[in-house]
Design a protein that fits this description.
The chain is α+β, with helices and mostly antiparallel strands. Helix content is about 30%, strand content about 15%. It has 8 helices and 8 strands. It has helices spanning about 1-25, 60-65, 65-70, 80-85, 150, 175-185, 200, 210-220, and strands at about 30-35, 45, 115-120, 125-130, 140-145, 160-165, 165-170, 190-195. The strands form 3 sheets. A 4-stranded antiparallel β-sheet has the order 3-8-6-7, with helices on both faces. A two-stranded antiparallel sheet has the order 1-2.
């Protein structure tokens, strides 16, 4: 029994020594003979800049890489060197990434060029309609034939009313917004419209309250 234990310990020691020797050799730099000395014993140590390491990371990438991971794409802001090394940011070469594009019918409600201003005397000849309750506000349903608005030529059906003279009416209920026009006492009433639909004006991409207030005050 004692001889068996000694033999097992001896084998274990030999295994450990072999493992450490292999590890050292795996990372050891190559020795190259110095120029002009052939195979003489006077050699110098050369550490190559392209020396490849073996043994420690062999098979690691293959072990952690799966087809599903190779096809996955990470946000560029979250990508790390290990993501690139493991191939987790790989995209199909047949479908190159392209910059995000706004919807085809998108109208920027924070761009002054998408607004129309008309100064009209009464009766204006405009038929207004209320937006869906979730948005509020009113828009131009139609223009009366031969009326002041049609003859002026600036207003079109679908335009969203945002201000009457210096008062903001965007988002107001139908009666309140229309009442602002009725109560105006100026010879001509200035109407400010957004040329877009209610989602573009009041939805997630719509103009901020601060921007719209400043825009209306600048046009007063």
């Amino acid at each position: 029994m004692m001889k068996t234990i000694v033999f097992v310990k001896f084998c274990a020691i030999i295994t450990i020594i072999t493992f450490h020797t292999s590890s050292v050799l795996a990372f050891a730099p190559k020795l190259q003979p110095s120029a002009g000395t052939g195979t003489s014993s006077s050699s110098r140590l050369v550490i190559g800049t392209t020396t490849q390491l073996y043994g420690l990371f062999d098979g690691m990438k293959e072990a952690f890489t799966a087809p599903a991971l190779e096809r996955s794409t990470l946000d560029a802001n979250r990508e790390t060197p290990i993501d690139r090394w493991m191939g987790w940011n790989v995209q199909s070469e047949d479908s190159p990434s392209s910059p995000g594009k706004a919807p085809v019918n998108f109208v920027d409600s924070m761009d002054e060029s998408n607004y129309v201003i008309a100064s009209l005397s009464k009766p204006m000849g405009i038929v207004f309609e209320e937006n869906d309750e979730e948005f509020g506000g009113i828009f131009v349903l139609s223009l009366s034939e031969g009326g002041n608005a049609e003859n002026d030529g600036k207003i079109k059906p679908g335009d969203q009313l945002v201000a009457v003279n210096e008062k903001k009416v965007a988002g107001m209920p139908f009666d309140d917004a229309l009442g602002t026009i009725v109560e105006a006492t100026t010879e001509k009433t200035k109407l400010v419209f957004f040329r877009g639909d209610e989602v573009q004006l009041y939805g997630p991409t719509g103009a901020s309250k601060e921007w719209l207030d400043e825009f209306i005050s600048s046009k007063a």
